[in-house]
DNA sequence: TTGTAGGCGTTATCAA
DNA sequence: TTGATAACGCCTACAA
């Protein structure tokens, strides 16, 4: 199963390899006629240049890699689409690399950087609690997008684009309080990590405090473990558990929209109504939150703007402007949907 | 920004490159002491082996690539998860490559095959109407999964796993007829391509015919163009258009669940009810179709089983069993949800 | 147990 | 306008 190489093509055409290379890469200094002949032979022999060899040789490729943690999270969909559009417009190649749960994003980046001679990297999602030192090892520019509150965990010298999870979840829980809710459950997960659950929980606590409401451990409901943690199923099962427990809360703050939707379904199946029996609030502002019935009250993250800001920083860094490194915090927007109600 | 290579490490340790190589790759025939020393130096010098060089040298890597067309389609999520699990269990490396709308999947595969020395390829989604010849150029085993009715468009010699879109959409439209609907709209897209729209439309027509109902062009509503075609938004806008047109249909067959959900929302916003005013049916059996209120009547595709079958075929082919090549057609399952009603 | 040298498939540099 | 030839970074006989 030996595959055809540039040498074979050269032989078949009776020319040198460098001539073939010039033909392939549209380099100047080649006779149009020989070029055509070579291209025709290539066409017929189903020759495909080996990218590994190319990467090895080429000093720099115009490529940006986006590393996502949790690619099946639909929150990332519009961000990825925007990245793709933006990067294409810049005539760069876009590579999307997914990182699974137990992989270390920075290690993958380190490998990829060498392998592909990247121009830049975007880390989308994920946690970086103790990878700061490893991040320093990267030699190409990178930006963190939607990584959990980098401004606090990481240094100011690490460029990032995000929303202040703590502040925004404060905002939505405060809203729940403002429409009369005094007994608000939170669907979240243990705060062991420094991930979204932690920060959104902080916001929840602050809002309660501001409104003079006591924080009760019994109002905290833990979501499923594992990679289904933030899914509809997780919200559904957690809500079922809550309903069975005879909780007296009047509102639920779900750590994201998918969980909120699952909760709504469980409430519906119990013969109760959202928002009449329970108000339910989510977080993220997924498209689905607007098509769901009832539409979900949520915090909309300005995903397109965040994606653009991320790449603007990245490309400026690529152009050598290191002064641009910054932590951009976008404001979220409280979207009042049909899933919450004054009490 | 010259990066450190295996030679540098060798020099720093005062050993030869092959010794370093042995240390990195856990090869036998190396003194434990020198190995430890080398690994320590590597650790300190943030050396990362270059994968391009490795791929170039190595004859075969234990890796399977999955090429998806339309990665933000949540229908693929559980399939991808299953692939990942399965491939990891086989101790293979899993690579997910996304293919954008205007890219040719087979070309990407051809490149990747050379670049990474793959063991096998899965094509997930997408259309292959006239890539059959190109497919022949691939020299590693591959299987098509969820590619539009390969049994009909392609030859029997191309292994595939899918559901019979025509038959299944017949099934669900026939169900709508069986509960009394005689005026059924379809939300689809122009049949120019050989994609899902075409086959599901065929099933729709067949079901009408079987039930003695005339097919009306006026009952066909075209979805949005472009990559939002099969989204909730598309279903939403199309339903709005339909409602304004004063259609007299009593049921809607949406080409997939997302479209069905968008349609439900539009009907809701018009002050009408699903299923009382309109029955709405979808296709795919997304998780969301079960959490939506009302839950969506749909055809559930057995995604996990399909994923497993795909890889079983692929691995058998990798093991040299060419006789296994086949077109497996899984049956879909009609899930009657709350979005449809007898009339 | 270790080191040297050649080659993987390209591209880039030089002469021709 | 072309064609040798030397890298690119790594792995692997083979030799020591």
What does it look like?
The structure is a homodimer of 343-residue chains. Chain A is of the alpha/beta class and 343 residues long. Chain A has 3 domains: 6-49, lambda repressor-like DNA-binding domains (434 Repressor (Amino-terminal Domain), Orthogonal Bundle); 58-163 and 303-330, Rossmann fold; 165-301, 3-Layer(aba) Sandwich (Rossmann fold). Chain A contains 14 helices and 12 strands. Chain A has helices spanning 6-13, 17-24, 32-44, 51-57, 77-89, 105-116, 132-135, 150-153, 165-178, 196-210, 232-244, 257-269, 288-291, 303-318; strands spanning 63-69, 93-99, 120-124, 142-145, 160-163, 184-188, 220-222, 251-254, 279-281, 298-300, 327-330, 333-335. In chain A, helix 11 (232-244) crosses helix 12 (257-269). The longest helix of chain A has 16 residues, at 303-318. Chain A starts with 5 loop residues before the first helix and ends in an 8-residue tail after the last strand. The mean pLDDT of chain A is 91. Chains A and B meet through helix 4, helix 5, helix 6, helix 11 and helix 12 of A and helix 4, helix 5, helix 6, helix 11 and helix 12 of B. Chain A binds a DNA duplex (16 and 16 nucleotides) through helix 1, helix 2 and helix 4.
């Amino acid at each position: 199963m030996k595959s055809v190489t540039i040498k074979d093509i050269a032989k078949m055409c009776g020319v040198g390899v460098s001539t073939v290379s010039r033909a392939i890469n549209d380099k100047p200094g080649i006779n149009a006629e020989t070029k055509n002949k070579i291209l025709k032979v290539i066409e017929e022999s189903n020759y495909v240049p080996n990218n590994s060899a190319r990467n090895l040789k080429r000093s720099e490729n115009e490529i940006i890699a986006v590393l996502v943690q949790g690619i099946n999270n639909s929150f990332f969909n519009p961000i990825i689409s925007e990245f793709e559009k933006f990067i294409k417009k810049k005539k760069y190649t876009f590579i999307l690399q997914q990182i699974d749960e137990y992989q270390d994003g920075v290690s993958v980046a380190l490998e990829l950087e060498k392998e592909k001679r990247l121009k830049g990297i975007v880390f989308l999602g994920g946690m970086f609690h103790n990878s700061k030192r490893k991040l320093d090892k990267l030699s190409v520019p990178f930006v963190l997008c939607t990584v959990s509150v980098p401004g606090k965990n990481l240094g100011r010298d690490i460029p990032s684009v995000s929303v202040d999870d703590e502040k925004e979840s404060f905002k939505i829980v405060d809203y729940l309080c403002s429409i009369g809710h005094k007994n608000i459950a939170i669907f979240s997960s243990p705060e062991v990590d420094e991930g979204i659950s932690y920060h959104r929980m902080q916001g929840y606590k602050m809002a309660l405090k501001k409104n003079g409401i006591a924080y009760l451990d019994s109002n905290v409901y833990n979501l499923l473990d594992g990679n289904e943690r933030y899914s509809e199923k997780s919200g559904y099962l957690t809500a079922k558990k809550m309903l069975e427990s005879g909780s007296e809360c009047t509102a639920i703050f779900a750590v994201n929209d998918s969980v909120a939707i699952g909760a709504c379904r469980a409430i519906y199946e119990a013969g109760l109504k959202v928002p009449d029996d329970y108000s339910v609030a989510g977080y993220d502002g997924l498209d689905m939150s607007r098509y769901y019935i009832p539409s979900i009250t949520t915090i909309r993250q300005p995903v397109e703007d965040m994606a653009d800001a991320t790449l603007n920083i990245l490309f400026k860094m690529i152009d050598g402007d290191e002064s641009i490194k910054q932590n951009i915090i976008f404001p979220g927007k409280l979207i009042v949907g049909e899933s919450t109600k004054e009490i």
